[in-house]
Amino acid sequence: MEKISNKERMKIPRQPMPEQDNVERSHNFKEVNLGFTEELAMLEAQRCLQCPKPACVEGCPVGVKIGDFITLVADGKYMDAAAKIKEDNMLPAICGRVCPQEEQCEIKCVVGKKLEPVAIGRLERFVADYERTELGLRKPEVLPKTGYKVAIVGSGPAGLSCAADLIQKGHDVTVFEALHELGGVLIYGIPEFRLPKEIVKTEIDVLKDAGVEFQTNAVIGFTDTLDELLENGFDAAFIGVGAGLPYFLNIDGENLNGVYSANEFLTRVNLMKAYRFPEYDTPVFDCKDKSVAVFGGGNTAMDAVRTSKRLGAKNAYIIYRRSEVEMPARIEEVHHAKEEGIEFLLLANPLEFVGDENGWLKGTKIIIMVLVEPYASARRRPVPIDGSEYILDIDMAVIAIGNGSNPIIQKTTPDLNFNKWGNIQVNEDTMETSKEGVFAGGDIVTGGATVILAMGAGRKAAGAIDDYLLKKKSPVKEEVA
After folding, report:
1. Same fold? 149-244+405-480, 248-401
2. How do 236-239 and 438-440 pair as beta strands?
3. How far is 172 from 193, CA to CA, in rounded Å?
4. Which helix (H) or strand (E) element contains residue 337?
5. Which residues face 403 on adjacent strands?
6. pLDDT, tens digit, for every residue of 310-362?
């Protein structure tokens, strides 16, 4: 590529992401973002200033060498760029789609101080997609076997990243997944229109080719306890089971027919293909020409309400008790939701659900809120306005206000320390738990967070597990002796 000055780089605008038409996409489950072309990718890559000490890397939880891979993209060396990313991140096609780069790597981009930051996530996605479509994903290099075996509980982003690092270090790795499909929240929680499931399966196939063993329908705590795994040949274990226990509003009427948790609704649609019933066995509420309300303001709420629109909802509402400024959802997801016709009822809080004589939901009582200055925290506090109640007619409700920790492992592993919220307590530097040889990371430690933060925890744990195992005398070396 012809060298250009930084002054010239700063004149290049951030390249727009090609997208499906907003009207058309609101009726299908195809991916919304279509990805950069080579031309767009090379132009966007030229915006990078190649900082000597790139701050963007500091914002990446897995430490991807961002400047290096973007330089390779600018030079048209896409396969080399893919290899560079995979030195630190084995799941770039996933991260390039669902990670909140605007709050992590891109927020620290020097270009972003005056202009829009370099589109790091979009370039990562381009590189990963190019590798997959042009050559097929390449199996990572694996060191000679150490003879040690590691059990990984959960096949979500934390478990997969931990497995990827450990298999490359020469350890035998078995991943135990409670459900019948692999991928955790990547499969059951994130809709097809944001993350095609074929991409997740392809990334997992690479780990299989590298030697990772996967066991589905394995609920650790029931099928086997953690102690039983460690007693039956595993030298260490990593717990990455996420936070899959839904929170509810705890208001009257929440047990009416037509009220779902976001977990159940999205799992039925994403994992069990309920939107293709009766071709697939699992049904979901018939949203066609109905009014659907989703309660919450995060990415899961956006996923649920946009899914309901695609299932034919006549009215699809987001009901959130604060303003749009306080919404934790990604800006892109909010933007896409508005384009697709989602109605935002902000500063609104549900008081109760109203049912008919047959026990079916028919409405929700809403009260209007106002934000006041906080007492101590930095977040404004919503308080109700007396006398502002009204009934909103709805046929279906989805509760998307967060998740807690599944209690199964806690109940069956008494020597594992948990905090008051049911999250596993760890040494933040090593991800070690209170139990010898057991490490943990992801949402089961932090509570609900992002895919890339879970992956960062998985990678950190993998390094600590490797150190823990190699402090022992290697079984392979013992056999040789």
Report:
1. yes
2. parallel
3. 35
4. helix 331-339
5. 246
6. 999 999 999 999 999 999 999 999 999 999 999 999 999 999 999 999 999 99
